[in-house]
Amino acid sequence: MTKRYGDNTILNELDLHIPSGQFVAVVGRSGGGKSTLLRLPGRSGKTKRRRTAGWRDAPGAIQDDTRMMFQDARLLPWKTVIDNVGLGLKGAWRDAALQALASVGLESRAQEWPAALSGGQKQRVALARALIHRPRLLLLDEPLGALDALTRLEMQELIVSLVAGAWLYGPAGHARRQ
């Protein structure tokens, strides 16, 4: 695939195959195209692609079996923790949301507001929100970059343990493990 912004080529004839169940980190300088690469699966637009096996072509939308986690938690401040985890779900989702929160160690904080949480706790809520959908593909765009070193290590271990056997893919950031 090739991706350009105006006259600037960000990705040039990239051919990438990642087997299911693999953990892949993309490392590079700022502005090197890491986040652009993450945003390509399942998106349409001015991207020249030969084939995207495993992804359906849905105009401008990330697929149902794909979730993305960002550097900031992107929680809605007017919704409780459990409502942030269940965002967009229909039917009887509360039990599943509580289980997702329990898996990240935050079941007891379900009724609290995001403002009451630390940065690491907010990221764990964002992880629970991503994992409740049981995504086949989890994209991580430096979700631990704003955390302190100790919390970052704990979150790394948590992510690896929770998604063992899933296809986890995200940039490592700028020459540091993440």
Automatic annotation (TrEMBL):
Domain ABC transporter positions: 1-172
Keyword annotations from UniProtKB, A to Z: ATP-binding, Cell membrane, Hydrolase, Membrane, Nucleotide-binding, Translocase, Transport
GO molecular function: ATP binding; ATP hydrolysis activity
Cited PROSITE patterns: ABC_TRANSPORTER_1, ABC_TRANSPORTER_2
InterPro entries for the chain: ABC_transporter-like_ATP-bd, ABC_transporter-like_CS, ABC_transporter_ATP-bind, P-loop_NTPase
Highest taxon listed in the record's lineage: Bacteria
EC number: 3.6.3.-
Entry annotated with the keyword Hydrolase: yes
One Pfam family hit: ABC_tran
Top enzyme class: hydrolase
Assigned protein family: Belongs to the ABC transporter superfamily.
The protein, known as: ABC transporter ATP-binding protein
